[in-house]
Amino acid sequence: MNDKASPHVTRALGPVEYYRCMAGIVWREGLRFVQQRGRFIAALVRPLVWLFIFAAGFRSVLGVSIIPPYSTYVLYEVYITPGLIGMIQLFNGMQSSLSMVYDREVGTMRSLLVSPFPRWFLLTSKLAGGVAVSIVQVYVFLLIAWFWEVEPPIAGYFALLPALVLSGLMLGSLGLMLSSVIKQLENFAGVMNFVIFPMFFLSSALYPLWRMKEASPLLYQICQLNPFTYAVELIRFAMYLKVDWFSLVTVATCTLVFLSLAVFAYNPSKGLIARRGGPGGAS
Amino acid sequence: MTTALSIRGVSHSFGARKALVDVNLDVASGQFCALLGLNGAGKTTLFSLITRLYDNVSGSIEVLGHDVRRQPVKALQHLGVVFQNRTVDADLSVLQNLTYHAALHGLSAAQGRERGMAELDRIGLADRANDKIRSLSGGQARRVEIARALVHRPALLLLDEPTIGLDVGSRQDIQDHVRRLMSEDGLGVLWATHLMDEVQDADQAVILHRGKVLASGTVETIVEHAGAPSIKDAFTGLTGQLVMEDVA
């Protein structure tokens, strides 16, 4: 390796360097995840509690008629599995925003942003790391759910992957956007109450929207405006080897909007960080 | 002698509050420049502008001739930074922190490990490469941060109050190491501090107070101009503020 050249040569950063940078950021997210076993267990227990307890209890109360993508009556467990996958990614996206706020408070965010790569690329890489972690969680969850009679077609597990990437990106970029406006770590409880819970309950995760329409037309309208609904539907259809085009376009559009706003917020000259005095609140 | 850092006419405000007013500063390669100022003088704001955490609103900042705002990719490549707060990841090992930083500069994992080990060797912590950061002492973690800032071989090293909270021995170690780097690597160093015993007579110094540069030049000339017996007295005379006792 010719590593002894003049130390102050300005290098052009090409695709190889970009790849190394992104791989390094994803690798770090993975390492942090592996080392925080508590986080992994919590991330897994949460949807499993819903699957084992909530779904079992409501199985007899809530009947699900035959609706696409299902071709037969399905167990309630089967119906809520895509919603629970969405829940894993929703929590993960918000948790990565929490880690951004934490990183900002302790300063590790600064060392990321001093990298010579463009800021949008650094933030996207960070997002990719979070998505990779959430996908591992989802497949472990699906493995356990399989023993609980949630058995989509084998090919569905593969078809699910691109849907997970997209929905993970959307929820992660939403978290990233929120991380730029959350001033302190303590405010995360607010995110829990005002973002995670409403997004989860006001969606098609737990009940089909036609049921919601019967109960309350207003809530039905809100559910239809909730991007999380489309992430769940994208996942649901993909698991059964179908594409819900409307959900696909909606999720892709929301991803672009959220990510653009996040990049704007972290932009050194225009964003909120600049106006507020930098990550960590410089004096 | 090349100029590692050149700051011309930089001003910056947060809303109505002026954090920096027309700051000029140069650091040549192989030179130690002390940025002296009390808390709130604008040191951290200046560092944030040099590292492009936010943009300089007026004036120019160049690292090795590359404008930070217009050519950030080129400028930031030559910049190594040790922030005031600890920014190493406590849950990762020493070497993992260094290879992560190498990746942030587009270096391969192998290069990161090789250079990381070489830097750890220089700070006498090669045997701790696989230990978690949280198992290190404050002084050791600081030295790891300096090693990390050098993995991509920068031309300019910025240190923001690097010895805060460290004992006398660790402070001296860090000073010695950084000064050795200047002569070995030709590194330009901008060292922000309010501890006056960290500067030597031959060093360059800039006295920053309430966002303005009150004096700059070698420590010797600043002391002479101020007609004071020491840099500490010169600082007190110029700023009208007493310097905190330099005890760690």
Give the CATH topology of the largest domain in chain B. Answer: Rossmann fold
Anisotropy-based shape of chain A: globular
Cα gyration radius of chain A (Å): 20 Å
* Unreliable stretches of chain B: none
Number of domains of chain A: 1
Count of helix runs of chain A: 12
Structural class computed from helices and strand pairing of chain A: mainly alpha
Mean residue pLDDT of chain A: 83
Largest sheet of chain B: 6 strands, mixed
> Could you tell me how far the N terminus lies from the C terminus of chain B, measured between alpha carbons in angstroms?
35 Å
Oligomer: heterodimer
Counting DSSP E segments of at least 2 residues, the number of strands of chain A comes to: 0
Overall spatial form of chain B: globular
Largest interface by Cβ-Cβ < 8 Å: A-B, 45 and 56 residues
What is the first-to-last residue Cα distance of chain A? 43 Å
- Strand tally of chain B: 10
Explain this structure:
- The complex is a heterodimer of chains A (283) and B (248).
- With 283 residues, chain A is mostly helical.
- Chain A is 72% helix and 0% strand.
- In chain A, helix 3 packs antiparallel against helix 5 (119-146) and helix 3 crosses helix 10 (227-239).
- The N and C termini of chain A lie far apart (43 Å).
- The model of chain B has no long low-confidence stretch (mean pLDDT 88).
- In chain B, 35% of the residues lie in helices and 26% in strands.
- In chain B, strand 4 and strand 5 form a beta hairpin.
- In chain B, 48% of the residues are buried.
- Chain B folds into two domains: 1-78 and 154-248, Rossmann fold; 89-153.
- At the A-B interface, helix 1, helix 4 and helix 12 of A face helix 1, helix 2, helix 3 and helix 4 of B.
